[in-house]
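Quick illustration, no need to memorize.
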Amino acid sequence: MATIYDVSVLAGVSLATVSRVMNKSTKVSEKTEKKVLDAMEELGYRPNSIAQSLASKRSNSVGVLVSELHGPFYGAMMSGIEAELRTSKKHVIIAAGHSDEQSEKESIEFLIDRRCDALILHVEAVSDEYLIELSKGSTPIVLINRYIPALKDNCICLDNQLGGYLATKAILDSGHKSLAYISGPMWKLDTQARLKGHKQALAESGIEFNPSLMFEGDYLETGGSQGFKTLKGRNEQFTALVCANDETAAGAMDAARQMQVNIPADVSIIGFDNIILANYIHPKLSTIDYPIGEMGHMAARWILKNIYKNMSLDIKNMFEPTLIYRNSIREIDPG
C-alpha cells in the first residue's frame, strides 16, 4: 500500500508539500499540485481521512439534526443542505430528534461525538437556554426555523406570523367572513406564530376570532381529517378553512370528499408550506410558499462562511413567505 512518503518521492517534493496539497491548507503552485496529484493517481494513493482530520483539525463533515426523516418538507431541507455542502466537498451526518427533548439532546451529543465541524439544527423541543449554552461550546451551531434573539446571527428562519397573516388575508380578500382554522400542535413556536398572524388578519377586517371554529391538529393528514370532521360537527357555519400546513389541508380535503362537501364550492381552503403535493391534489391547493429548500442552502452557506472561511458568501437570516393562489379558494360576491 502506497504511503505519503512514496508520493513525495515520486513527485520529487517534500512530505510537507504533499500534506499541503491534500489538506488545501496553503497555496502551492499549479505545477507542483499537478505533480503531487499525478503521483497519487499513479500510486493509487488514497489519503487517510482520519489522519487528515487530526492534522487539519477538521473532519469536513457537518451534523444535521431534523425533526423527522420523512415527508417532502424535511426532504427539501436536507437536499438543500447536502447540495450546498457537497459543492465544497463537505459531507453531512444526519440524525432525527422527533420533536422530543431527550431525543434531540441525545442526537446533538451523537453528532458532536462524531467530530462534526459544525451543526445545523432543526429542533423544537429543547429550550432556548439549552441552545444558548450549547452555542458556547467548541462545536458551532446554526439554527433553522428557530429564532432566538441572543443567537440571531446564527438563525435562519421564516416569518411565520406573516405567513399566517397572508393565508387568512387571501381568504378574507376573496369575500369570506366565516373562517375555520386547523392549527399545528400549540406547543410549537411556528404554530403559535401562524395563529397570531391569522388573528391579526381577522382583527384588521373587524372579525372576532371564534375559538369554536378552531381545532388543534398535529401537522399531519390525520389531524386535518379529524379536524374537518370535528369542525363540521359543531354548531358553527364556515365558508372557508385555513390550515396551518399543506399536509393538514390535504387531510381536510379528503374528509370533505368523504362527507360530500365540495371544495371550493362549499368550503374554500388554504394551506401552508407549498410542498410539491399542493400542486397535484384536486383542486390545486392555494398555500403559502415556505422556501425551506433555500433555507437549507442558506444554513449550509452559513457554515461554509463562518466555519470554513468562504468569506465571499452572503448570508440571509430571515426569509419572507409568499402567497401561492390556486384553485381551492372560491371568490364570494360581496353584494
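The chain is about 45% helix and 15% strand.
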